[in-house]
Structure formats: C-alpha cells, structure tokens
Write a structure and sequence with these properties.
Elements lengths: L5 E10 L5 H10 L4 E5 L5 H6 L1 H18 L14 H25 L3 E4 L1 E6 L2 E5 L7 E11 L3 E3 L12 E2 L1 H4 L8 E5 L3 H12 L3 E6 L10 H13 L3 E4 L2 E7 L5 E6 L5 E6 L1 E4 L3 E3 L32 E3 L10 H15 L13 E3 L4 E6 L2 H6 L5 E6 L4 H6 L5 E6 L5 E8 L2 H4 L1 H8 L4 H5 L10 H10 L10
Parallel strand pairs: 1-2, 1-6, 2-3, 6-17, 8-15, 9-10, 9-15, 10-11
Antiparallel strand pairs: 4-5, 5-6, 7-16, 12-13, 13-14, 18-19, 19-22, 20-21, 21-22
Helix pairs in contact: 1-8, 3-4, 3-6
Length: 474
C-alpha cells in the first residue's frame, strides 16, 4: 500500500469486505478484471467477526454443555462446568482463522487490498482515508464500483450503546462472564438466538417485545415451537411492551422500563440489556449523494436484478441493498454483480434463497408458504412429516417440529418450511429442488439414506402426493 496523498486507478472497486464484498472481489478477479477491495475494519465483515460465526460458535458450545446436562433419559448423567472466558477464547480463534483465510484468498486471486474508509468524490472516484496518524489518504478512480458496506444494529431511543450495561449482539458475544440477569429487547432472530444461548449458560433471561409473539414473519406453528422451548429453558416473555429506557438500581444492577400502547409501565431488573430490534444499512460514511446515489427512505441502495443501482456502473450488494439481509444472499449478489460487470448474463433471483434461524430448535425456510402461494394465484398442495415419526430424530432426542413442503397443483416445488433438528442443513435439499424446477415425484423417487433426518423431506413430499408410508396422509 502506498502511504500518502496519491492517486490510483482500478477497473472494479469493491467497498466493504464482508460476505458480499470479498466474494464479489474474488469473482471479479477470476474474470480477469483488475480489482481493488477497501475495508475499514476487518476482513469478513460483521458476519465473520461479530455476527454469524461468533453466535454459531456460542450456540454450538452451549448446546454441548446443555445436551450433556439434560441427557438423563439416555442414561447419561453429567454436570458440565462452563468457562465463558475459555469459550470466548475458542470463538476468537475460529474467527481469526476465517478472517485470515479471507485475506489470503483475496491476495491469492490477485485482489489489491486497501485498509481505510472510502468516501465518494463523484460517480467515478472515491477518497480512501487510511487509519492511523500520518497514514494519509489516496484517491481511487474506478470504472465500476460494488458497494458492500453492510449494516449496523438499530439504536433504540433511551438505550445508548456507549453505556456499559447496554449491549448490541457483538458486545454480548464479547463478554467473558455470564450476567446473572439479562433483559433482551426484541424477539426477532437475533434476540431469540442469544436469549436461548444465555439461558443455557445460566442467565435469568427476560425478553420484551412490542409484537404479540416471537419471530415475526414466521408461521404461528413454527414460532410457537421455538417460544415454548425457550420458555422451558426459563426465558420469560413479555409481549406488547416497548422498552423505553433504563436506570441504575440500588443493587448495583439496572432497571429496564417498558411501556404498552395504553401507557402501562413495567420494570425489569437486570445486569445487562441486549438491544436487538433490527439492523440499519451503512451508507453515511460513503457520502452516496456525491456519486449521484439516492438511498431509499430506509437508507438502502435500490438495485435491479443485476444488482446495479440507478447510477450506471455502481452496484450494491448485501445488507446495504435491502432484503433479504442474509450473508449467503450477499455472497450470491456479489457474484451476480461481478459477473454482470464482466459482461455475463447474470441476474439475482431471491425465490430460492433459504433463510435459517439458529434457535432451539432451528428454523429454516425457502420459497413460498402455502398462504403466500395462494396469494400468488397457485392452488397449493401441502405435505408434512413430523419429526416425532422420524426414527433418526428419536435417536437424537430431538423430536419437536416438522418438515413441510408446498407445491403447485401440477407438482412443482414452491417452498418448504422446517422447524426441528438440523433444519439449517436440511433446507438445502428443497432449495435445490426449487432452483432446478423439480417436481414432487422427483424428490419422492430419490432414495434417501436410512436412518437420517433428511428422510423427513422425502416423507413430506410423499405426504403431499397422498402416499406417505411413515405418517398419515392428509
């Protein structure tokens, strides 16, 4: 890297090295384009450093301890001791390995890496300010630009992340001691994943949510299973309440205040409070207006099916481009943008983009629900297989939930919803089926290994065809 006030040029400038940006940079380099990738924080973005990977590491580790401690039915009696400091150190090692790998992959593919903060000068130039005294800045001229600046936690009035007791998800995953009492504001996927983790670690967890149930956007029979499991772990839910503020308490902790629509106030004692009410796109530091970009009212950069914005030659991928705000969607969009720049006929289709929530049990979905299919004019056919009829599920001790498939009247797969063990892995099969235009008969005729959880997908499809063997046909 050249230090000082210099000017350089590149064919493709990628701003942000998260799962959308670094994938876009590598794919563009694979297409023999000259690529420069700018990152102001850490390679891998929020996902690898503060989100997806750290949270799943904690989920896995706490499940190991919890499963061992609750396996009496299997004849196993154990009382594991959990060292959160040791768990944190292990998690950091996983993160460091992955982020270091991203940097090596970029360099191995010929991507030029720049550390610093990029700000648009105009529609063909950015200014990159390097961190550190005396490091200076440089101007980078580009032919094409891919914006992948990601998102950040939504700030809630009355809760300043700068205050020690107020945490975002990254802060919570950086703790080295377990708080005795934790209030979680928000029962979306982040709030539910982390409230479950810390309940298993021994925290007294209280969740407050303005809506009337957990996981808005998921069908009732799915969210209900997750909520009941969390309640069995000791998580205390309070719905229809919005968090309004907090104050220090005489016992050395804090008091979190909530309010209902009719003005009724409630208070909850805590040692820490996690605010998990959503994420906002990061566009401010870019000065998008200087390049002619006009963010939406919510702050996103609108794009077409090629991930290109209204400004020719400038693309946006990942969270900054809006829903679906998923790491794997960002990577898919990054590939589309890079290939579009390379002149290939690439387009992004969100219909077959799966989503997973790593709660207990897991949730995974893809495509349309039955109600959504009906609203789109289909006459949907639905098949379902409960895990309590699965031999493999019984041998794991995890029998709550089901696999549900949705198809058109003429048998084409339109969607799937899974709640239960390994749902995040099982969703790959129906996702592939939808992507390739498979019919119910195609999946039913595919021989599945026995005994496995994946057999439940085959049985759900057979159920939709009215010929299931291991569950009653509808």
């Amino acid at each position: 890297m050249v230090v000082g006030d210099v000017t350089t040029g590149t064919e493709v400038l990628v701003i942000g090295a998260g799962p959308g940006g670094y994938v876009a940079a590598i794919r563009a380099a694979q297409r023999d384009l000259d690529v420069t990738l700018v990152e102001r924080d850490a390679y891998g973005g929020v996902c690898l450093n503060r989100g997806c990977i750290p949270s799943k590491a904690y989920i896995t580790a706490t499940d190991v301890a919890h499963d061992a401690a609750t396996a009496e039915e299997m004849g196993i009696h154990a009382d594991p001791a959990v060292d959160l400091g040791g768990m944190h150190e292990w998690k950091e090692g996983v993160v460091d390995r992955l982020t270091g790998g991203v940097e090596k992959l970029c360099k191995a593919n010929g991507v030029t890496l720049l550390d610093g903060t990029a700000t648009f000068v105009d529609e063909g130039t950015v200014r990159v300010e390097h961190e550190g005294e005396g490091q200076g800045s440089e101007t980078v001229a580009f032919e094409h630009c891919i914006v992948s600046t990601g998102s950040r936690p939504v700030a809630l009035p009355g809760f300043d992340f700068a205050d020690e007791p107020v945490l975002d998800s990254a802060d919570l995953l950086s703790l080295t001691t377990v708080p005795d009492r934790l209030v979680v504001v928000g029962a979306g996927y982040i709030g539910m994943e982390l409230s479950t983790v810390f309940a298993k670690l021994g925290s007294d967890v209280t969740v407050v949510e303005m809506l009337d149930d957990v996981l808005p956007g998921y069908e009732d029979d799915i969210s209900r299973i997750v909520r009941k499991r969390a309640e069995s772990l000791g998580v205390d839910f309070h719905f229809g309440e919005g968090a309004s503020g907090w104050r220090d308490a005489a016992d050395g902790g804090i008091v979190v205040t909530t309010e209902t629509e009719d003005g009724t106030e409630s208070t909850y004692g805590a040692d820490r409070v996690l605010v998990a009410v959503g994420r906002d796109p990061v566009t401010g530091p870019l000065d998008p207006g200087a390049a002619g970009l006009e963010p939406t009212e919510e702050g996103f950069l609108a794009t077409d099916e090629r991930c290109e914005t209204d400004v020719e030659g400038i693309y946006a991928v990942g969270d900054v481009a809006g829903e679906p705000m998923l790491a794997h969607a960002a990577s898919a969009e990054g590939i589309v943008a890079a290939e579009a720049i390379a002149g290939e006929p690439a387009a992004f289709d969100a219909r077959a983009i799966p989503a997973a929530v790593f709660t207990d049990p897991e949730i995974a979905t893809v495509g349309l629900t039955a109600d959504e299919a009906a609203r789109e004019g289909y006459d949907p056919v639905v098949g379902e297989m409960p895990f309590n009829a699965s031999g493999r599920a019984l041998t794991t001790g995890e029998t709550e939930g089901f696999v549900r498939v949705v198809a058109s009247a003429d048998g084409f797969l339109l969607g799937a919803q899974i709640v239960g063990p390994e749902a995040s892995e099982l969703i790959a099969e129906p996702t592939l089926a939808i992507e390739m235009g498979a019919r119910l008969e195609d999946v039913a005729a595919t021989v599945h290994t026995h005994p496995t959880l994946s057999e439940a997908t085959m049985e759900a499809v057979e159920n939709a065809l009215g010929q299931a063997i291991h569950t009653l046909n509808r």
